Amino acid sequence: MRVKCVICDTINQLIDDSPQAKKLRNRPIHTYMCDPCHERIEQRTNARLATGHFGFYKSSRKIEEEF
After folding, report:
1. Among residues 21, 23, 49, 62, which is most buried (max CB within 10 A)?
2. 41 falls in which pLDDT band (50, 70, 90)?
């Protein structure tokens, strides 16, 4: 399955039977991000979490308690 990153527009190949490919096929609202873009967003999110001014608004209580 060919997929395109929503941030940097690189085209990658996914195995057709992988869980990520099935999610993208069955739920069109899901988007694909390549590994470098995903890591970049993860680093910036963790930096915002470390400041203490970052909040999750639409999450469950269990997730909020873990942070």
Report:
1. 21
2. very high
